[in-house]
Specification:
The protein has six helices and five strands; from the N terminus they run ααααββαββαβ. With about 150 residues, it is of the alpha+beta class. The protein folds into two domains: about 15-90, Winged helix-like DNA-binding domain superfamily/Winged helix DNA-binding domain (Arc Repressor Mutant, subunit A); about 110-145, no CATH class. The chain starts with 14 loop residues before the first helix and ends in a 7-residue tail after the last strand.
């Protein structure tokens, strides 16, 4: 390498966004909250009543985490009794789009990793699009690919 050539500096993952994605996927209720908000269910009590297993405490922790990241916004109305609603921010819309792309990528990985083969080794079908017919199921085996993505 001559003195004029530029060295490429090490590239590292963006720490804050990586932590944010990890925290959101680590909270099993965040994706459910996004779906509730997309369906117009934006009040905490209504959210808890709409989802089996979701408690007020867990929902509040989830909402707080999403508020801290700027994914959702809290709107408090000066009424008696007090009314609070949540909405997805512009940043949250972008973030959720990225999560949707990650989910789509996961589907592609799974489709590549799980294939059904007939006895001659020819692929019959891939991924999770419905069950095989009884004639296919009797003459095939399920194998995984050799990719490190297929865990």
């Amino acid at each position: 390498m001559t003195g004029r050539e530029k060295k490429i500096s090490r590239v590292s993952a963006p720490e804050r966004s990586a932590r944010m994605v990890e925290a959101i996927y680590g909270c099993k209720w965040s994706l459910t909250v996004y779906r509730l908000l997309a369906n117009g269910i934006n009040r905490p009590g209504e959210m808890v009543r709409s989802v089996d297993g979701l408690t007020t405490k867990v929902l509040n922790d989830c909402l707080r985490k999403n508020l801290d990241f700027g994914i959702i916004n809290r709107v408090a109305y000066p009424e008696i009794p007090p009314r609070v609603e949540y909405e997805i921010t512009a940043f949250g819309t972008k973030f959720i789009r990225i999560l949707d792309q990650i989910e789509s990528l996961q589907g592609e990985i799974e489709a590549k990793c799980w294939m059904f083969y007939d006895q001659s080794g020819s692929a019959l079908t891939c991924g999770a699009p419905g069950p095989l017919s009884s004639s296919q199921a009797g003459n095939c085996e399920k194998r995984t690919c050799d990719s490190p993505l297929c865990l």
